[in-house]
Amino acid sequence: MSLNAANIEQRVLEHMHKEWGWIALRGLCALIFGLLALVMPAATLAVLVLLWGAYALVDGVLALVAGVRIREHGKPLWPLIIVGLVGIAAGIVTFFWPGVTALTLIFIIGSWAIAIGVFQIMAAIRLRKQIQGEWLHALSGLLSIVFGLLVVLRPGAGAIALTWLIGWFAICFGVLLLVLAFRLRKQPV
């Protein structure tokens, strides 16, 4: 690795260390969303749609902010920006068409989770030499992909079962992001 590449990687690590709070906030939002989904399993699909739309929108905004603030080669971190844009788009689509069928919602949630997973893994691979615990980032991406595939392959699942699945996914995803964020915070730069 050239000296210039090492300097760039060091700057990325410094930005991630400095901006660890955005990752922690994403994890906290996911954890809260997951707990709410488990506590209110009998909620109607309309409430689930709005709750999920709000979560996707907030998560997208937070990912977008983190992607813009974390720099690589002096430029924004594009995989995280794409995750943010996908989340914002999924949230907006959910709010503009609240009467969407359960099947369409399932495919939106599944596709969103798969997309996030792919980009989380890309980011983990890209940063594997700069941070400790990058496997947590990759594992959160793998969890997202598995969750998305399960949702897409089992569209006939009932609303309550989907609520529980989404709740546990969000809790696991949130915990993994929180652990990653606090590791980044402690990471020496």
From TrEMBL:
Keyword terms: Membrane, Transmembrane, Transmembrane helix
Domain of life of the native organism: Bacteria
Membrane-spanning intervals of the chain: 20-39, 45-65, 77-97, 103-123, 135-153, 159-182
GO cellular component entries: plasma membrane
UniProt keyword annotation of Nucleus present: no
PANTHER family, A to Z: PROTEIN HDED
Name of this chain's protein: HdeD family acid-resistance protein
Organism expressing this protein natively: Comamonas antarctica
